[in-house]
Write a structure and sequence with these properties.
Shape: globular
Order of helices and strands: EEEHEEHEHEHEEEHEHEHEHEHEHHH
Protein name: Glycosyl transferase
Radius of gyration: 21 Å
Organism: Candidatus Gottesmanbacteria bacterium GW2011_GWB1_44_11c
InterPro entries: Glyco_trans_1, Glyco_trans_4-like_N
Pfam families: Glyco_transf_4, Glycos_transf_1
GO molecular function, one term: glycosyltransferase activity
Helix content: 25-40%
Mean pLDDT: 91
Oligomer: single chain
Largest sheet: 7 strands, parallel
Number of domains: 2
Strand content: 15-25%
CATH topology of the largest domain: Rossmann fold
CATH class of the largest domain: Alpha Beta
Length: about 375
């Protein structure tokens, strides 16, 4: 059997799992990995879905490396591995889950129960949880090592109650800043999200509009982006998903969308996204929260398009000031940076992603994390 040797680009500091590895070490050949996805979107997503795209990229790389991966997700997933369908289709756009928060919450718990039943007799080496606190809250009956990637903020008390309830829980942060809200968790390491750069066409020529990509929500800085566009006089294209929890916010902003300078193009496909990004002058990301990563940032940079964003959350880890974009604290400051965009070489943006944020680098980081969890807990973690 092939015994792969993985060369890691950077060994990161760990808090609770302070293990020292050489630059090269051997990993388990053909590791059996259970990948637990959220139920809202398919893997990969048809349109919006950062977490689901990351999961797809990770699965693709792990399979290429010779590992045996099983995805526990929805039946509309299209993945190069075994699929255990928890529901026939993703739930975000299905009635009543598209408008009823309680119904959506209830069906998520039904899904977790289905996952537990399917896991009961499966001989996995490790379970990689992308389903957050819900799965962990009932995971004591799972007799396999578990590692959880934290894809969102950790500022909610209910999350912290679950996350701190067992010394056996192991976590992966997607940025170092993400740990600030809860620094005492058992972090294995930070693994940045990665993309398949080959799927993002590079453009040396800047377009004539600004764009915003993500959710149509207050924390994503939609109002601030419109303000920046007004101050600079540049057109703004907003490509965003509107979830039912953000519908009221959308209605409050709608009068500012004139269809000329300020355009709302809706939730777009992957191909539409890359076209939007590569032809933009700059991506605006005036976030109003502690963004744990920001996949749109590296997607934009992969196309050669610089990012103008708020200096908070993970953004200082992703954007190099004056080289791949600009970071500021107010809409006025960000608007002033727009005129400096020609100083940035678009190729530098692309190279930054190729050097730090590829799917391969991400998968290597996760394999390192899996190894650390297995060495700490052994293959029989939670065994009776």
């Amino acid at each position: 059997m092939r015994q792969p040797v993985i060369s890691f680009h950077k060994i990161r500091h760990c808090q609770e799992y302070a293990l020292c590895f050489p630059v090269k070490f051997e990993i388990i050949d053909c590791m059996r990995i259970a990948m637990l996805a959220p139920f809202e979107e398919p893997v990969p997503p048809k349109k919006y879905g950062g977490t689901e795209l990351v999961i797809y990229n990770l699965i693709t790389e792990l399979v290429k490396m010779g590992h045996d991966v099983t995805l526990f997700g929805t039946g509309d997933a299209e993945v190069p591995c075994r699929l255990e369908a928890i529901f026939p289709a993703s739930i975000r756009t299905l009635p009543p889950f598209d408008t009823d928060q309680k119904a959506r919450e209830a069906v998520k718990w039904v899904g977790i129960g289905n996952v537990l039943r399917k896991l009961a007799n499966e001989p996995f080496d490790i379970i990689h949880n992308h389903n957050g606190w819900r799965f962990l809250s009932v995971s004591s009956c799972v007799r396999r090592p578990i590692v959880t990637t934290l894809h969102g903020p950790m500022d909610q008390v209910y999350q912290q109650v679950v996350f701190s309830s067992s010394p056996d829980f192991a976590f992966i942060s997607i940025s170092d800043n993400q740990r600030v809200a809860y620094p005492t968790l058992q972090y294995v390491q930070t693994v940045y999200n990665g993309i398949d750069v080959s799927k993002f066409p590079f453009s040396e020529k800047a377009g004539g509009y600004l764009c915003l990509l993500g959710r149509f929500s207050p924390e994503k800085g939609v109002k601030e982006a419109i303000k920046i566009a007004r101050m600079t006089g540049m057109p703004l294209k907003i490509a965003a998903k509107i979830d039912f929890v953000d519908r009221q916010f959308y209605e409050s902003v709608k009068p500012e969308i004139d269809g000329r300078q300020i355009q709302f193009v809706g939730e777009i496909s992957f191909e539409e996204k890359t076209d939007l990004l590569k032809n933009a002058y700059a991506l605006l990301a005036p976030i109003q929260w502690e963004e744990p990563f920001g996949l749109n940032v590296i997607e934009s940079m992969a196309c050669g398009t610089p990012v103008v964003g708020t200096k908070r959350g993970s953004f200082p880890e992703l954007i190099e000031q004056g080289k791949t974009g600009f970071l500021g604290t107010t809409a006025e400051e960000l608007a002033s940076f727009v005129s400096h965009i020609p100083m940035i070489k678009r190729l530098d943006c692309r190279k930054a992603v190729e050097e730090r944020f590829t799917s391969t680098i991400m998968a290597e980081g996760y394999l390192q994390a899996y190894q650390r969890v297995l060495e700490k807990f052994g293959t029989g973690k939670n065994s009776v």
